[in-house]
Amino acid sequence: MPLEKRPLDFMSGVGWLAEKVPIDTQIAPVTFYYAFMNEQRPRLYIHLGNSISNLVLNETREETRVKIEAIVSEQLDQQRFNIINGLTSAYQVSMYGTKSVSDWLNLRYAHLYMAVFQ
What we know:
Blueprint: H1 13-20, E1 26-27, E2 30-35, E3 43-48, E4 52-53, H2 61-84, H3 101-108, H4 110-117
Antiparallel strand pairs: 1-4, 2-3
């Protein structure tokens, strides 16, 4: 599914899963959003939302699917808005990637740039 496709289209399996777990289970919506942020490599932002009690979802599979789909869609839209508008201070870096090709070239030829621009 493309990143910006709306509405999100969950299948009935999410309702089936909610039926199969114990009634006191907490369900946490997790959304992912990636952005390039003026860099060659994208940054992946992961949002772990507020948990939902399975008691609240004590409905039919279809009603549960619709409710979870709405919660995750709203969370993803808010996450997208925050990232696009630079409101990323709530996120913590958990992993750094490796250098890109241009990063390696910049390191290798940095002395040439310094000599030219001095």
